[in-house]
Amino acid sequence: MLRCVECDFSLHLLCGRLPSFIKHEYHVHLFTLVDSLIEDDSEEYYCDICEEKRDPRICIYYCAECRYMAHVNCVISKIVEVLEGDIGDVKLITVGEWNNMAGEEQQIERATHDGIERKETLKDLISELSEDETEKLKQLFDWNYNDNALQIERFGHLQGGEKHDQEDSDSNEEFYADDEFLRKFRKRFYDPNEIKKIRLKLDSSELDLKLVNVEGFKIPQTLAPVLKDFIAEYGNIFASHRRNAFSPAMRNIIYFIICRLVNSICRTRVIDITEDLLLHWNCQLYFVWVTLDVDGISFLVDTVWELFEVYMGLQIKRRENDWVENLPKKIEKLREKLNKYEEQLDQVRANKGLAKSDEVKKCLEKASQFHKWKTARNLLFRKL
Hints:
The protein contains 14 helices and 12 strands. By secondary structure, the protein is α+β, with helices and mostly antiparallel strands. The longest helix is centred in the last third of the chain and has 55 residues, at 298-352.
């Protein structure tokens, strides 16, 4: 944790910029900062300094020549030494940020040169929409300019994928076929009525994002490199679109939604994809592709649908592994119950011929005098 006492400002080490390379006494070569590293398919990864397991999703310092890797915490003394001293030619980078992302100062400078006022934000962009466009946008997003603590809102039964899966795993329901499991989630993924149940909220941190100009479009500064790479790879989706189909403000909003989606997809590892996240991606895609009828994004549709298949395949494998692991335990518990019931049955049979108390005998004798299918009338009218 880095902290400025004077400003009362704290920052996680991994949330700030780190030296792109360092020199450490534990290794002869320079270490380079990498966002993540999966060196093989063993699914077990270690730090070569402390020899403890490491999470492949978390950045490390790495020597590619020797395939030597180190936890950030294991070289923290050298990182602090660089940050506190003369940085020199050491470039500071933020792990996980988009490739070729420019620094904040460069983005603001570019925005000023392109004629966009620094104070213009996403909130301002939304206010430029027509009444009809605003109503359409409300089909996807809710926002409140006065709320500083908005979170993603989930409607109906939408829950986090991992939690949902865990509930299925721990339930007492009988195992059902993979096709049935797939069918249930596919309905939520493809059914328009299910998709429309999901609406997202724009929080204040997004509404207050400064806008910059990229290829003639206004985009939040944090998504500028995403839009730049997107247009370079796929071109301007509005170049061949119906003329005047959208206002300039709505085109900017559409690119904001697309880049927001692309950024989320590109920052998410397959292992971290959840049912909840897939549904959020899909509802944004549905809004742009179906509700707004925007052409030129079929490749994005294919990508999200393919991720759906990947996710479902992993969940089916996990379910099968869970059942293989848990069924023997359930069978053993049932065996224990069966043995207990058999012991109880033996006890009942053994006690059936044993001597009984006078009270028990009296009850049995009374029961034998009355047919069980008759009413109790004979007790009231014995002489009739």
